[in-house]
Amino acid sequence: MAKIALMGYGVVGSGLIELIDNNKSKIDNLEVSSILVRCLSKHEGKKYSEYLTDNVEEFFSQESDIVVEVMGSLHPAYEYVKRALQAKKHVVTANKDLIAEYGGELLSLAKESGVTLKFEASVGGGIPILKPLIESLEGNSIKSIRGILNGTTNYILTKMYNENVDYEEALKEAQALGFAEANPDSDVLGYDAARKLAILSTIAYKNRISWKNINIEGINNLERQDFIYAKELGYRIKLIAESIMEGDQVYASVRPALVKEGSILSTINNEVNGVVFHGDAVGEVSFTGKGAGMLPTGSAVFGDVLDIIRGRKETSENYLNEILVNRYIDSEVGVLIRIKTEEKKNVIKKLRLEFPDLQLVGEKRDELALYMNTLGETKIHDALERLKLEGNIISFKKLLRAV
Ligand code: HSE
């Protein structure tokens, strides 16, 4: 019999409990021994309420084999997970903030204690991503990761694309439907996706990628007009989390990018997540599905719990060596730029000298929309900064094409 102690009884915790109950006929050696919550009255009448406690000492005094952390946020989750590992309990967590920040340290601690730390649900919710990456793709050297790792922003961008609405309107609807948090900053500013990309990249490239070194840009500055120009060129706009291994460096970014209509990532819409790995042996493999929600995330947590019970304890290594992260891509890339200027003709003339394939996508009285290919992102960035310095342009905004 394996005893499960649960920290947190919100959406994901409730999903796990439901799956434990639904699978009783198949898996009867699982028992809930304690559930730690902040506020007892909030959970009255729920299943297993006899195991509820708001006292952390009481929680840790109960017998358990596996501690499941689904409380979210960094603190006190970090202190509690550490305590559980030090007490030689296996730990399953769905907490991407925790793993992105302290994953290496906690994996080391788990190793020292001879227990397992698993965190499948921390990336892509219900989609099995980490297990295939750690186990099934072991024979590959991973060249790149490209994905849509945040459901809230994908919902907002899908709505902006399909319905030609403003960002604020799409965000309000995402909040009303419960996808976006009341404070949606970590989603819309790209931090949530960056933490997930850091976890995936660390495992894929076998070196620590700190999420803080990733080039992060949110979706909050996107406008209706950006979608009109992108559509004109045959692209969607998605919040793309991508990392590419080149030599001993990794390029990593999370930012809105142009995605060719018809490509795999262009078909990942609404709150769905998707990720494409490129391995040297396997080529491209893609995973899609629900990146959040009670049962999908509960499903990933349940899978980790079962693996531990069944003795399948493979998990990520603790990669502590931090690798260099490039913020700008240096290979050839397409870019859509919107330029505010009173000198449209002059700007086109000057830019065409450096970017002969420059294409006019649209224009307004004081605005140009141009598309061009550039060898390295800094080349176009520097050219635009120069024009700004010389007084030819007032401001610019760019959207890169996802490779
Ligand atoms: N806020 C996250 C999302 C939840 O929208 O994808 C899952 O991590």
Automatic annotation (TrEMBL):
Catalytic activity, reaction form: L-homoserine + NADP(+) = L-aspartate 4-semialdehyde + NADPH + H(+)
Give the residues annotated as coiled coil: none
In this protein, the active site sits at K196
Q: Where is the Homoserine dehydrogenase catalytic domain?
A: 128-306
Q: Which UniProt keywords apply?
A: Amino-acid biosynthesis, Methionine biosynthesis, NADP, Oxidoreductase, Sodium, Threonine biosynthesis
Give this protein's Gene Ontology molecular function annotations.
homoserine dehydrogenase activity; NADP binding
Q: Give the protein name, as stated in the record.
A: Homoserine dehydrogenase
